[in-house]
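INFO batch 0412 | record 1 of 1 | parsing
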Amino acid sequence: MTTAADQVLSVEAAHILQVYKRLPLVLVRGAGARVTDCDGREYIDLLSGIGVVSLGHGHTGLTRAIAAQAEELLHTSNLFFHPLQGQLAARLSRLSGLPRAFFCNSGTEAVEACLKFARRYWHTAGSRGRTEIVAFERAFHGRTFGSLSVTSGAPYREPFAPLVPGVRFVPPDDPEALRAAVTSATAAVIVEPIQGEGGVWPLSRTMADALTAVCEETGTLLIADEIQCGLGRTGRPFHSAALGLRPDLMALGKALGGGVPVGAALLSERVAANVAFGDHGSTYGGNLLACRAALVFVDALENGLTERVAEAGAHLERGLRRLAAQHATVGEIRGAGLMRGFEVAPEVADGIVAAGLERGVIVNRTAGTVVRLLPPLTISDADIDEGLARLGAALEDAS
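INFO prediction complete | emitting tokens
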């Protein structure tokens, strides 16, 4: 039997470059944590567009703000100042403690900006040989040349070699290796407080303390990639604070626009003071539609959403513990707040996403054998419970 999804995929998708292994599903509507496909079937979305749809699908406030801004003015270019940029920068500064913001369109662009600004800092300071970057094994920071250069993993890197030189990778659980890697030639260390694509691995407090110490001792800049784990995802504005990290630069994306593309690089004053006119730019970065959407999200974050995520995250963790008790296929559970992952056997991992769709729940597999959950930050306890019930059935099917 041919479905509406089959027809869409065979005709409309025929000319799209095949760089994604897409699921045979065409989603057309959403409300809260639930989405509906073109055949009328509903799913509980425990992935939220890979952590993007932070306020849930069809959020009324976000929809109205986007529509209102589209009627007023969409774009001016960065040749002009607009108050929405200033308002968003001020709000992000208050949340992060980093006083300057550069706006772009995505997380990977934010990483690119942070890498450039780190090198620019040392260039201006007169240490022009201080250009190397230290990154961590299992890291994922994006797919552009700069961000890919600090992303670990041969399958990502090898087809595009040679990448940007001067990058060293160290194990994320070896303080001594970190200390040995950071030298007088190191411009910055880049870290995900929780590694997302790498398998939802939180950085340990021991490693965070070593990172803080080595940066203080050597003056090396610290870049925190909070694209996936930041902006309330773990029950606090930024997960760096949970580890005592004090980044000089921070990369943001995903959740910031609630579904509208927007990214930001946040900078300390000392780094910002060494950046000059023309050092970086973006045609669409900080456009009015994106800033308006981001302000709606930040409003929610500052008015109860962070606290709600902490509660929902605890509820999700309890549910995952029960799931593990009921299903021998569920291994180690990791993460914080509404960013969770758990290990499964390879044969289960191979079929879990498809089995989830059959049961009406959307999840993601990453790092080979990890089931990753990134639900909307607004998800209800009832939808968490129902989503995990469907996921439990999918685990049975996959195994």
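INFO post-check: The chain has 13 helices and 17 strands.
INFO record closed
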